[in-house]
Amino acid sequence: MLWTTLQYDVDFDNAMLFGQYVMVVTDKKASGGGLLEGYDEHHVRINGKSYSRTQATFIQMPPPEMQMDFAAES
């Protein structure tokens, strides 16, 4: 399987332990990605940015082979 949705604490622990790339999807759009730095009951921290566990989907997948800019749209 190329990708796995992270949902439970053990999934986030494994992503941190093995240094896996995690893509963040919000409103059916990629809104961030990178290495998982930490999490708690309500938020997940990826590349210095905090994402809500209830409003975003976290997908463990191979890292992209290109630079992805997730700058906020104006």
Explain what this protein looks like in three dimensions:
The chain has 74 residues and is mostly beta strands. The protein is built from 1 helix and 6 strands. It has one helix spanning 9-17, and strands spanning 4-6, 21-26, 29-39, 43-46, 49-52, 57-60. Strands 1-6-2-3-4-5 form a 6-stranded antiparallel β-sheet, covered by helices on one side. A hairpin with a 2-residue loop joins β2 (21-26) and β3 (29-39). The protein is globular. The termini are far apart. The model has no long low-confidence stretch (mean pLDDT 88).
Given helix and strand content, the structural type is mainly beta
Report the helical percentage. 10-25%
Number of DSSP helical runs: 1
CA distance, first residue to last residue: 36 Å
Task: Please provide the count of β strands.
Answer: 6
Mean pLDDT: 88
The geometry reads as globular
Radius of gyration: 12 Å
Share in β-strands: 35-45%
Order of helices and strands: EHEEEEE
Main β sheet profile: 6 strands, antiparallel
User: Which ranges are low-confidence, i.e. pLDDT below 50, for 5 or more consecutive residues?
Assistant: none
Q: Strand order, biggest sheet? A: 1-6-2-3-4-5
Task: Offer a concise description of the structure.
This protein is mostly beta strands and 74 residues long.
